[in-house]
C-alpha cells in the first residue's frame, strides 16, 4: 500500500513540475516515478498515508511557491556575486541546528538547502546540518540556522512532523 501512495505522490509532483499534457512526458513520468518508487520506496517514511492528510497536502502545495521564491532570490544573489567585479565571496562551512524531528523532514530540509544556489548540505548529524555557504554571513549556530533553515522549517514541520 505504501508504494502505491509513494507512486501517487511522486507522480503528482511530476505533473506539478512539468505542467504538460504531452503523452511522451506523461509516460516518462510514469516510468521515472515507478522506478524511483521501486528502488527508493523503502527508504522514505514508514507512514506515507500521513502525507495524504488534507492539511499536509495543503502545506505541500504552499511550500512549492515559497521554495521557488527562495530559489529565485538565491539565484539572483549568486549571479550578483559572479558578475560583481570584486567577487564578494566569503565561503565557509557552517553548522546549523534544525528543530525538525523526523528523518524525512531533515532530508527534505537538506535537499531544499542544497537546491538553493549558494548553499549545499555537506552532512546531517542528528539535529545538526553542515552547510557550505558561498557567503557565510554568520558562523554562530543560531544566526546561521535562522538565515538558512528557518524559512523552510516552518513549512516542512507542518508537512512531515
From TrEMBL:
List membrane-spanning regions: 5-21, 27-45, 57-72
Q: Which UniProt keywords apply?
A: Cell membrane, Membrane, Transmembrane, Transmembrane helix
Instruction: List localization entries.
Output: Cell membrane
Q: How does it sit in the membrane?
A: Multi-pass membrane protein
Name a GO molecular-function annotation: monoatomic cation transmembrane transporter activity
Q: Which organism is it from?
A: candidate division WOR-3 bacterium
Cellular compartments per GO CC: plasma membrane
**Where is the signal peptide, in residue numbers?**
none
Family label: Belongs to the CPA3 antiporters (TC 2.A.63) subunit E family.
Query: What name does this protein carry?
Result: Na+/H+ antiporter subunit E
Main localization of the protein described in the UniProt heading: membrane
Amino acid at each position: 500500500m505504501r508504494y502505491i501512495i509513494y507512486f501517487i505522490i511522486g507522480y503528482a509532483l511530476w505533473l506539478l513540475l512539468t505542467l504538460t499534457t504531452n503523452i511522451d512526458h506523461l509516460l516518462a513520468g510514469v516510468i521515472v516515478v515507478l522506478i524511483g518508487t521501486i528502488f527508493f520506496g523503502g527508504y522514505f517514511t514508514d507512514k506515507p498515508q500521513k502525507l495524504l492528510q488534507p492539511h499536509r497536502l495543503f502545506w505541500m502545495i504552499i511550500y512549492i511557491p515559497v521554495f521557488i521564491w527562495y530559489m529565485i532570490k538565491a539565484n539572483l544573489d549568486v549571479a550578483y556575486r559572479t558578475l560583481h567585479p570584486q567577487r564578494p565571496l566569503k565561503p565557509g562551512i557552517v553548522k546549523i541546528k534544525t528543530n525538525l524531528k523526523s528523518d524525512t523532514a531533515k532530508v527534505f530540509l537538506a535537499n531544499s538547502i542544497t537546491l538553493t544556489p549558494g548553499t549545499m548540505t555537506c552532512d546531517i548529524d542528528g539535529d545538526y546540518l553542515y552547510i557550505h555557504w558561498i557567503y557565510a554571513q554568520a558562523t554562530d549556530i543560531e544566526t546561521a540556522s535562522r538565515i538558512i533553515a528557518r524559512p523552510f522549517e516552518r513549512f516542512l514541520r507542518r508537512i512531515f512532523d
